[in-house]
Every structure is written in structure tokens, then in C-alpha cells.
Write a structure and sequence with these properties.
five-stranded mixed sheet; single chain; Purple Acid Phosphatase, chain A, domain 2; alpha/beta; 3 helices
């Protein structure tokens, strides 16, 4: 395999809003080590954890009940630091500036978020800004989507996957 070592493969979902049909199919289809769920709803992350045979980390979003779970989680995955958050508190629908500053201040390698239902896979000054979009409620004119993040050869790589609804 030419020395490429994949250390971690992570499925990423956000904004499932209680509709987990496609997410369950993807978990069964994709080979993964972990799931990150960026909110709306946190209970969906718990349901995915019951289905998956690997760890699931989730956070609350703006549609979750106040106090029902954390708004953000800091995770260290294979030596890379991640911030998992829904994004509404950073107003990601208007700009990525606030979420980027939060990541930069905390020396984060990758931020995983949702809220906008719009996929994003972009590096900004060495920080991965990653939004998988929504598997169940994509923006009008878009397809359902999810993400895969791999850590290999000490690099973080994000991919957006679109699914026929």
C-alpha cells in the first residue's frame, strides 16, 4: 500500500432532525472507526451509537432542548485536535470567521460543525473547516450529504459524499 497508513476513518453527520434512515444505511455500508454528529438532534447521535459498532460523539444544536448536552466537544484523535460543535452559536450561516477564531485560539486542527445544512470542506490557514451538510434535510436544490474524515500519514483529509435521497 506504498506506506500510506490510515489511522482513523470517521463518518460525519449533522442536522438529521430525527430522520435517520439514510444515516443507518451509510453506517452499515461505510467502513469507519467512529461517528461524529454535529447536532440537531443529540438524541440522533445516541440512536446512531446504538446501531454502530464503534464510538459516536455528538453535541447539541439549536433545535435541541437547552441543557440536554454539550454545545461543543474538544477531541484528540490520533494526535490531531478537533472541535465538534453545531455552529449556531458562532453564526456560521453568516460567516465562518467566529468559528475559525475559536479554533485558532484553541490550536485546533479541524472544526466539525453543522447548522447551515450546506456542505463545506475547506482549509483556512491550516485549519480544516468541515460541515457534512444534512443527510435528511438538505438545502433546496441540493442532495442529502454526509462526510468522511480520514487521518493518514499525519494529515487530516475531508470528503463530502452526496446521496440520492
Amino acid at each position: 500500500m506504498n506506506g500510506v497508513i490510515i489511522l482513523l476513518r470517521v463518518l460525519v453527520f449533522s442536522d438529521t432532525h430525527g430522520d435517520l434512515g439514510l444515516a443507518f444505511k451509510i453506517i452499515k455500508k461505510e467502513r469507519a472507526d467512529m461517528v461524529l454528529h454535529a447536532g440537531d438532534f443529540l438524541r440522533d447521535a445516541h440512536a446512531l451509537a446504538n446501531e454502530a459498532q464503534f464510538p459516536v460523539h455528538g453535541v447539541t444544536g439549536n433545535c435541541d432542548l437547552p441543557g440536554s448536552g454539550p454545545h461543543e466537544k474538544f477531541l484528540s484523535l490520533e494526535g490531531k485536535d478537533f472541535l465538534l460543535t453545531h455552529g449556531h452559536q458562532f453564526r456560521v450561516k453568516a460567516s465562518y470567521q467566529s468559528i475559525f477564531y475559536k479554533a485558532s485560539e484553541n490550536k485546533i486542527d479541524a472544526v466539525v460543525f453543522g447548522h447551515s445544512h450546506v456542505p463545506l470542506n475547506d482549509y483556512h490557514q491550516g485549519i480544516l473547516l468541515f460541515n457534512p451538510g444534512s443527510i435528511s434535510r438538505p438545502q433546496p436544490g441540493s442532495q442529502p450529504s454526509y462526510g468522511i474524515i480520514t487521518i493518514k500519514d499525519n494529515d487530516i483529509n475531508g470528503e463530502i459524499h452526496f446521496v440520492d435521497g
